[in-house]
Design goal:
Elements lengths: L1 H30 L23 H12 L2 E6 L2 E6 L2 H10 L11 H7 L12 H14 L2 H6 L1 H17 L4 H18 L9 H16 L6 H4 L14 H30 L6 H8 L3 H34 L1 H14 L15 H13 L15 E3 L2 E3 L4 E4 L1 H4 L30 H4 L10 H18 E4 L1 E3 L2 E3 L19 E4 L2 H15 L1
Parallel strand pairs: 2-5
Antiparallel strand pairs: 1-2, 3-4, 6-9, 7-8
The chain binds protoporphyrin IX containing FE.
Length: 511
């Protein structure tokens, strides 16, 4: 008897699900068809189709099968992937009044607390206020250039440390990007050796990257799970969320308190926080300033990983490296280092930096934009709240835009008789519309200066061990922000003169 009930119950449940599915599909078609995509299952949708590594490749192959706008669902959440940059411009820029919101991310945003920072903030008054503060610091090319001495100083420190310890490249890149942001945001000068604040910020940034990784936490798809008690077996992620929330809280408060204390002592170095605290001491503003300063952190990892991509590219493509060095030698000579002001005189080095951005974009799928209301785009229904992800990686490897897209060829950005330059990748790599990366000028300037001075003084090559050349494996992590897995490279001064130059730059600054 009980088996009969079980069969009836199961049968009824299946019938109900099927009915809901038909009604649901019917409702969709009444409003317009959703973009095509792999066929999912009732209720769970495309759970079994979603890739867990190199997502951008799978999405690109879906594009070849279903077209430039592909849609899937996960437990009822619509996800749209754009495989043509034109759709990204048409939706995020031309219809920016609709497509400027962000999705609610339960784990990273609500539970850890990153929703106080710009990248995760929903569109609205708070977003506009934070973005405005942010833009006042680094929103234009002029702002970035105003920081050129600071950028150059940190990069010279980087050269000196790498000269001393060439095998600790990753650690030194981390320290340099941390130092740039901490000084700009708080007027904090990092210490020699390990710096507690760089370590703290680094930890929080790593946790940001893990917690915003699409699909990393089931609670993002089923938000009701956030009410599961932390003691329940399998709820270890809740403890993790608490530890990460504490780290983020400290990352916001500790450097902020440092600036306040320096200001009271009259010893503060001018910074984003000190400037805003002086002009706006009211407590409501204090939270805004704290959150805007903390928003700077989330950008650190992107700048950092572009520098790592540069070292990987130079290890793999010695020909491009030689051409860039020849340009620096001819234009700058050997008795000084290039500066940001030399950029216009170094077109090949500039093109090489653009190619680093294009070759392996650090944010391959951008951050999702969400429409605030239903939209009909290219004849398809894009329901309110859909996660719309631009496949930036595909845009930058589209053979219609870039010839031989998988090769590393800086020349593609230099026009020559009978050949026009290919599209500037900065029009793609930094995202779109009202959510375009506000750190782009700073990122662009930092990448140029760190590439130019590194090329001026170092030879970067493959490691040779026991007479055998070690080929670096080009393999990437997954997630919102990606970076290459550890690889070996040899970094040596180009000449005795280069070595003198690195030391001299440091000593001149110290006097
Ligand atoms: C090569 C380096 C960088 C790349 C490739 C990059 C790329 C991006 C992309 C693709 C987005 C999403 C844009 C969109 O939603 O359409 C973004 C957003 C953002 N970036 Fe960057 N970024 C870089 C460096 C930086 C730096 C150095 C900072 C800060 C110092 C920064 C701060 C931000 C912030 C705060 C957002 C969120 C903006 C918003 O949601 O309104 N980024 N970035």
């Amino acid at each position: 008897m009980s088996r009969l009930f079980l069969v009836l119950d199961t049968g009824a449940a299946v019938l109900l699900v099927a009915l809901l599915f038909v009604v649901y599909r019917g409702r969709q078609s009444a409003r317009g068809p959703l973009p095509p995509g792999p066929r999912g299952w009732p209720l769970v949708g495309n759970v079994f189709d979603m890739p867990s590594t190199n997502e951008w490749n799978t999405y690109m192959s879906w594009g070849e099968k279903w077209g430039d706008i592909v849609s899937v669902t996960l437990f009822g959440q619509h996800i749209v992937i754009l495989n043509s940059v034109q759709h990204a411009y048409d939706m995020f820029e031309k219809k920016s009044n609709i497509y400027s919101d962000r999705p609610v991310i339960t784990m990273a945003g609500e539970m850890v607390g990153w929703d106080r920072t710009l990248a995760v903030l929903r569109y609205g008054k708070r977003f506009r206020e934070t973005r405005k503060l942010f833009s006042q610091l680094i929103g234009t090319r002029n702002h970035a250039e105003r920081f050129s001495h600071h950028l150059e100083h940190e990069v010279h420190q980087f050269l000196r440390r790498v000269l001393r310890e060439p095998t600790s490249l990753l650690k030194e890149v981390r320290k340099t990007t941390g130092a740039v942001i901490l000084k700009m945001a708080y007027g904090y000068e990092v210490q020699e050796g390990d710096d507690p604040l760089v370590d703290l910020v680094d930890r929080a940034v790593e946790e940001f990257s893990i917690s915003t990784r699409p699909g990393a936490f089931l609670v993002d798809t089923l938000p009701v799970l956030r009410h599961v008690p932390a003691w329940m077996p399998g709820a270890g992620w809740k403890k993790k969320a608490q530890v990460w929330a504490d780290d983020l809280e400290m990352t916001c408060n500790v450097p902020y308190a440092f600036t306040q204390q320096q200001m009271s002592a009259g010893t503060a170095i001018p910074s984003f926080t000190s400037a805003h605290l002086e002009s706006n001491p009211d407590p409501e503003q204090e939270i805004l300033i704290k959150n805007a300063a903390a928003s700077l952190y989330s950008g650190i990892s992107r700048s950092r990983f572009s520098s790592i991509h540069f070292f990987l590219a130079m290890t793999c493509y010695p020909e491009a490296q030689r051409k860039a060095q020849a340009e620096i030698d001819a234009v700058i000579g050997n008795d000084r280092l290039p500066t940001l002001a030399d950029r216009d005189k170094l077109p090949y080095v500039t093109a090489l930096c653009w190619e680093v951005l294009r070759w392996q974009p650090v944010v391959p799928l951008g951050f999702p934009h969400c429409p605030v209301k239903d939209d009909i785009h290219a004849g398809y229904l894009i329901p309110k709240g859909t996660l719309v992800s631009p496949n930036i990686w595909k845009f930058l490897h589209d053979p219609d835009t870039y010839a031989n897209p998988f090769d590393f060829e800086p020349e593609r950005f230099i026009a020559s008789p009978g050949k026009t330059a290919e599209k500037d990748p900065r029009q793609i790599v930094f995202g779109f519309g009202r959510r375009i990366c506000p750190g782009m000028y700073l990122a662009d300037a930092s990448l140029f200066i760190s590439c130019a001075v590194s090329l001026a003084v170092f030879d970067i090559s493959k490691v040779v061990r026991d007479g055998k050349v070690i080929e670096p494996v080009i393999d990437y992590t997954s997630g919102t922000i990606i970076h290459p897995r550890p690889f070996e490279c040899s970094i040596k001064p180009r000449s005795a003169n280069a070595e003198v130059l690195i030391t001299a730059m440091h000593e001149t600054r110290e006097k």
